[in-house]
Each structure stands twice: as structure tokens, then as C-alpha cells.
């Protein structure tokens, strides 16, 4: 066992279904707790460790033999930003798996895609519960101590982070609990093993706090039906309550109070002044349905500048940053009130209306598959590239151990250039946001890709213009591009982003009174609202879900309503997509790659491959054709970028296989040569069928000095014995001789004859 502390904690005490470990018999000084789950043998162990005492908080979580340690440190001076500067760093340590990194330096380098996605997952689980006015830079570091290859560390990191924050003096309105929910035989199971997950059609992470309030959801699914999906969420929320209770009791046992911090307070008189100067103008902007994204943002910006100038002119000592924050608060409140009171959104839609959708496919003929998808002012261009199985995406060794996935033959790359939002910015490798959005879109489409598809599929989604929900537009456009490429997907997939605007009872953030769920949200509705709830799937079921909740917890009732409303919306979107293309293209394009299996007799594989694989390299360089030996069938797989290249390659391969192999000539060996041509300087001869004629020089024809080969009365087709002396080191030509085989008797006979 990794932590010897557990073996020393005697006796243990059960309270409310949670096992408490302490160094004394008393339960007041509890150091560790173990949480058990229904029908599961492995316990989740949470410990307030003695590690990293200089950190503000440190917690350890263990499930099976997988253990993680999380530390939290928060600065004591506020930052200059007007948002919560939270950084989460999750790093996979090769040492935790008993491995050595495979890179040149043999040490951990830049974070992998899996580490970035896990860091984002933890961030979204914790950020909503920080006080809204807490602007102190905070860092959470997740250290993978040990991994057993049975239980994954992602969910453990969320629980350990919740524990570390609860044990620290950092202001935070937690704790939260997190579980992974799988499904075996149509029944949800909590914290499944890696082997169980391989057979599960559902992979759902649920993060919840007390009172069954949902904080974060993340899921990929094999087209799960809506009732089964909702059931899994309920089971996950229920099991999270055990973890929340355990962390709360452990935090109370440590009894570490929260620090006092300085928060920027907005004077009520300032708020009143800002509202008086801006309210009517903002209402007019938000009710003007002719505005688009740019014109609305520009109009709000002009009001902001005008209001701040007037306030600054009246009050010389005003803090312009505080005044700007007051304007933002007023603007947000007016926007939300208009939706709550009128059930009409800023672009004139009702709560459940979709934006106008435009679809095009087969835009560029040379490409394997293309699609253009536009929803409102959000545009994406999706392209499909099909390549050989050698182009699969390799997974790093530690992610392979924790997930069981070795390589991916389908992957989606999401690109968000700065011009998509009329900005000037950096162009280069994908940033964290692009990695996260691409991974979500990939989860939404992957379940409909055939597992036995022979090609590697790379789907790219470039956002040309963005006004909200570009990741869900990527799913819609990606599905269309795959059908345009003729990939036999099971069904069309669509995605939609849902929003929420709430009003609390008596100002209590846990008591939501009035609320409105918004379908297909704009960028401003995401920014001003309380949730970004993305869901994707086919008409039959759900393939992916990601819920970013910005308020401290969402009741299960609202979650259920959102899922049902989103499923109705995605069905409508699929109907629109089906009008353009409703099934994978049957007639293949001329640019489509092809693949065939050929069988090469074992005795001819050497001449097929060539010395050092030279023949296969020539096929790749000259024709783009890749040849791979299949161990299971004993055949060669031939991949060609198009049918024409395949025909050329097969013609070359047939020549290589059908041509008899050149015999190996022995140095000093005597061979029968056939004269093919007679020249002044000698005769051209061949030693075997199919050989390129070689020169037998006149000086090597006879022991007599001969200046012209014709004087020897030789004829074309005549055969003679010659001796082989290898190849000339300079010219590379064969060195042959006839005269060395002529003895003295033959010389005298020739002299008499002459």
C-alpha cells in the first residue's frame, strides 16, 4: 500500500456509511476517510497528508492502487484582473507507472493533449464555487503519485482538489465530489475499472455538491438513449453526496478557517448613477433585433464609453476600473431581465428557436470530403482526409496505460484563427481552448465511425466566423463532411449548445426561483448567462455532453429539462442537414484512396522488396503508394492515394514478381555466353536469359593479339565458354574473359588454321 499511514490509523470508526481513520480512538482528530460505493469493492480513500506543508492546502486521494496528491496555493495580494485567475496543472509522471519517458531528455516535457484536457476538466469542476469577487491568483497542482492501470486518476484529481481546497484557508464554497459512471448490462456502475470501461457504452463524469446540485458534467457515449443517460446522471449525483459528506467531515475535523480577503465593493450610489445613464439605451440595443454580433458589441461599447466619460466628468476621484465593473454588472442584469420578463432574446428568437442554418457539401473537388456549416453568424469549414493505417495517431505511454487506448484511426483537429472574431492574434500550435473544443467534437462523432474502417481519418474544422457554439457547429459540419467523403457512418450527428438565465430567491445562490433555458445560444448569451450546456448525438441517442455551469450548482430538475430540450433541438438540426445529404456518398470520387491485399510467394518476397526495401521506397516516393506486411494474414496491404496510382503500382509489382530473379554469379566461375552483337572492340554477350548484354572486349577474345573481333569469324547466336571476374570497381561493368580458358593446344591449332 502506498500510504503506510493507513496501516497505523487504528482503530477505525464507521459513521454515516463512511469509514474514519484516526491515530487515536477518538473520532475528533480524523486524518483519513474511506468512502464505499454501492456494489463496488474498491473504496475511495481521502487523506489529509503531511506532504507539502508549505502549500495552503494538500490532499491525497487513492482508489485501488492509483494515488494522486493535489496542492493549492493562493496569493495574499489581489491581482489586477477582474476575474478569477485560476490555474490547474495536471501532469502525468512516468515514474508513477514505473516507466522512463521515451523522449531524448528522458524527462517530462510539455504537457500532452490528455494532460491539457484533464486540467480543463478539473478547472471546470472547481471554478464555479470560488467567490465571484475573489481575484487572487490561485494555482492547483495535481501530482500523479502511482497508477495501477485499473483505475484512472482523472476523477481522483477532482476529489483530491476538492479536499485540498476544503483543508486550506482559501475561500471556496465547496466541497464537491466526483465519480465516473459507466454502464454494464444497461445498469449504471460507479467508478468502473479500465476493463469494465472497455465494455461500457457510456463514459460519464459527474461532479456535484451538497443538496444534489450539479457542478459539472462530461461524457462520451455510444448513442445512449435519453432515459438511460438521465438515469446515469441521477446515480452519479447520488454517489457524489457520499464524497461531499466525507470531505466536509474531514475539513471540519481539521477546523481550518478561511482567510479574510479584500473584495472590490461597488458603491450603491455608483450603481444607481450608471443604471440611470445607461438603462434605457441598453434596453433599446438588446431589443433591437436588427443588430448582429459586431454592431451590438459596438453599440454597447459606445454606451460604455459615454457613461464612463460622464461619470468621470462629475466625479474626479472615481476609480475608472470600478466604474467599468459597475457598468458590466448593470449591462448583464438588464440583458438577463429582458429575457426573464419577455421570453424574447436579443435577436428576436423565442427560448427554443434555432438560428438560421445553411449547409453545403463537396465544395472542393480534389479533397476527399468537405462541408460548410453555418448557424446564425457561426461558420465552420470541415474537411476530411483519408490516409493509410500507418498514419494513425499514437497515444503517449502513460495515457495508454490509464485509458487502454494505444492509437486512434479517427481524430478531429479544431482551429480557431483570430479573424473568426475580427481580432489580430497569434497563429501557431493549438492552444488549450482549441484542444478542448476539438476533443469534445471528436467525442460527439467518434461513436458513429465504423470500428473496422480501413483508412485513417483526419477531420479538420476551421472556424471562419464565430458567434457562439462553434464546437457544436464542428460536429454538424464534421458529420456532413464524413458523408461527403463516403465514410459509412451509422447516422448523422448534430450538436447544440444550451444556455440558462436564473433569478435567485432572497439572493440565495442555492435557491433558484425563476429560470429560462435557452436553445442554441449566441456568444453574448453564453457570456451573460449561467451555463454553457453542450450536447451532441443522433436522432436515436446521445454521443457527447459537456456542461460548464457558472453558478454554484444546478438542480437536477433543470439538468433533466435541459437534456430533453437539447435532444429536441438536435433532431431538428439533423432534419435540416438531411435535406442536403442524408447518407454517406456511394459513388466514390476519383481522388479517393484505395487499398488492396496482395499475396506474394515467399520465394519471391526478396525480389519484391528489393535490397534494403528499395522497391517499396520507390513506390512510395514515385507513386505515393505504401506497402505494409500484415502479420495476421501473411499478405501485403497496398495503399494508394487514388485508383490511378494503384493501377500503376500493381503493374510495377507484377513485373517485380513475374521477372525471374537474377542468378548470383560466382567469381572465377565458367559460364556459357551467347553472342548477341559483334562490334569492332568486342562482342556483346549474355550469360542468362533476361540479362542486359555485357561487353567481352576484343583483348579477351583470344590469346592472339586481335584488333577486330570480326577476324575470328564469330557469329551472332554462337555460344562460347567465358570466365567471370566480377564487376569493374570504376565502371561497374562485368569483367569477362575467353582467352584465359584457351590452352596451348588450342593456340597451336589456331595458328595452323590461320
Automatic annotation (TrEMBL):
The protein's enzyme class: transferase
Origin: domain of life: Eukaryota
Keywords: Cytoplasm, Nucleotidyltransferase, RNA-binding, Transferase
SUPFAM superfamilies: Eukaryotic type KH-domain (KH-domain type I), Nucleic acid-binding proteins, Polynucleotide phosphorylase/guanosine pentaphosphate synthase (PNPase/GPSI), domain 3, Ribonuclease PH domain 2-like, Ribosomal protein S5 domain 2-like
E.C. designation(s): 2.7.7.8
InterPro entries membership: ExoRNase_PH_dom1, ExoRNase_PH_dom2, ExoRNase_PH_dom2_sf, KH_dom, KH_dom_type_1, KH_dom_type_1_sf, NA-bd_OB-fold, PNPase
Signal peptide: none
SMART domains: KH
Coiled coil stretches, renumbered: none
PANTHER family in UniProt: POLYRIBONUCLEOTIDE NUCLEOTIDYLTRANSFERASE, POLYRIBONUCLEOTIDE NUCLEOTIDYLTRANSFERASE 1, MITOCHONDRIAL
Protein name, as recorded: polyribonucleotide nucleotidyltransferase
Organism from which the protein derives: Nesidiocoris tenuis
